[in-house]
Design goal:
about 120 residues, single chain, 4-stranded mixed β-sheet, alpha+beta, 6 helices
Length: about 120
């Protein structure tokens, strides 16, 4: 499986992650989180594989998250509704997302990403 980096080019954390992958000679396919949003099926699979709660997949510091008042609303939503919401707008997803045969990583954490070397 080829590594897929799902990122937003203007995001500083995404830039750091991309630079780290390049510096460590780790091949990856780059995917723009807005132009090619993750689908409901992809998110369902990745969330299950990541073993993280769905709420951890939300970009809680993003404007869209705050505008939609999701801090209050998420607790009343089903998992299916949360995944559909994430799939509706890439800006709601915590980024970057790295899909690899070594795991699914959300956000950039060099210590956790070292497994890719």
């Amino acid at each position: 499986m080829k590594n897929i980096l799902i990122e937003y080019p203007k995001c500083s954390t995404c830039k750091k992650a991309k630079k780290w992958l390049e510096e460590n000679n780790i091949e990856f396919e780059d995917r723009h989180i807005i132009e090619e949003k993750p689908t409901v099926n992809e998110l369902t699979k990745w969330i299950k594989e990541s073993e993280l709660e769905i709420k951890r997949w939300f970009n809680t510091s993003g404007l869209k998250y705050k505008e939609l008042n999701l801090k209050e609303k998420l607790s009343n939503m089903s998992d299916k509704e949360k995944i559909e919401l994430l799939a509706s707008d890439g800006m709601l997803i915590k980024r970057p997302v790295l899909v690899s045969d070594k795991g699914i990583f959300i956000g950039f954490n060099e210590d956790k990403w070292n497994i890719l070397k």
